[in-house]
Amino acid sequence: MDGSAAAIARGGAGDRCLGARRSDANDRTGAVAVGLTLLATLIVLGVLIFVHELGHFLAAKSVGIAVERFSLGLGPKVWGFRRGETEYVLSALPLGGYVRMAGLDEAELLEGGRDRDRAPSPRDFDAKPLWARAWVVSAGVLMNLAFAFLVFFVALVAFGEPVDPTTRVRIVGADTVPGATALRSVPDGARLVSVAGRPVHSWNDVVAGWLEAPAGPVELRFADAPPVRVVLPRERSARLRLLQALQPLHEPVVGAVQPGSPAARAGLRPGDRILMAAEQPVHAWADFERIVRAHPGRPLALVVQRGSDTLRLQAVPRVERETGPNLERVVIGRLGVVAAVGLQRRAIGPVEGAARAAEATAATIGAVAKFLADLVTGQASLHHLGGPIAIGQLSGEAARFGLEAFLRFLGFISVNLAVLNLLPIPVLDGGHLLFLGIEALRGRPVSARQRLRWTQVGMAFVILLMLLAFANDLARLFG
Length: 479
Hints:
Elements: E1 4-5, H1 24-62, E2 67-83, E3 86-101, H2 105-108, H3 130-159, E4 161-163, E5 169-171, E6 192-195, E7 198-199, H4 203-212, E8 216-222, E9 228-232, H5 236-243, E10 246-248, E11 254-257, H6 262-266, E12 273-277, E13 280-281, H7 285-293, E14 300-306, E15 309-315, E16 318-323, E17 329-334, E18 337-339, E19 344-346, H8 350-377, H9 388-401, H10 403-421, H11 429-442, H12 448-478
Antiparallel strand pairs: 1-3, 2-3, 4-19, 5-10, 6-7, 6-8, 8-9, 11-18, 12-13, 12-14, 14-15, 16-17
Helix pairs in contact: 1-3, 1-9, 3-8, 3-10, 3-11, 8-10, 9-10
């Protein structure tokens, strides 16, 4: 159907141990990381484009429309075979795909032309009633949303929910986070017992109570500090920004050390308590992590407590690059240690998993739609758009975190593809739906000539957006 294109509106944790290339072992690690990134990118793009186009294909078959070609990729044909009336092909550019249906002239533009001598057929797209055409046009988006729900569901049921058992808090940036000034009086380490009257027994409970409480003033009660009132905004995104000022307090105690990492070479061991780093006092794991991130490739003096002994160590954090909140590449330091947090796993059954997967799908739709709206209103920059390189970087990062993170990322990108394809731009699904809406209002279809003209305009616009996204990728990669 459409030439579904690969782009993302915005990208979206743990201590990764990839390292600066100081030895043959690290060179091999880097090569493995590159290979994993390439494989993850091919899986993400290939699976999601296939799922999207499969939706169009199955819907077309269900209403008797002849499908002439099913293509993964755009541009010239590289390989293919024919089964029945349909040719299945791989095309040169792995940035989209299409299903060419009989009588759908604008789809044929993707191959550079159409057969003007072809006789109309009752199996043509345009010969079908309006409802059937709308069903076929929307099926790709619906399939992507269904696929996102499925992978969220599998991730939840297969892996459960990580539970952070702490309810002790640390206030960060109360003077800079909008609406957080009321939290200034809360001492570090205070134990939170309820949010808006809802008891909390883990940090997961804190987040759930924060997000589900009614908008307006709510009370936070502590076991060892006076209660405070904060005003919760109505928007979920604004609540999450406010929650950044209220963070879980984790002790600066080493839980695990990766073999061969800078931390291991420096002599850090599980159970060590970090007292100072770079001559700065460390009161929480977040302090230690912040200091390490700020010292990529530079010597870092550490003071640690091991039993009754106080030791002075020196480590050199590895240089890593990660993707920031606006898809920018950020240079940071990593030691190869994790905190002794004591995360637990709570099993999730199918019923709860389905409900949570639906919530995750809906929340992702809302986040992507809001970002697109912010682009239109100027509240977000076009520089935040990401293209295939950004997708590749994020795919690789998700894959390195494991299957659970990769599945969640796959769901996120699937929703991105669905929402972007609903934009009312001819050549995308939203453009086709716009034509059908005009037909429903005026009682006759938009002429083939007009559809072709507007599809060419839409294709040019999409190509410009893709070039912009690609330029953003290059700027972030080499900037």
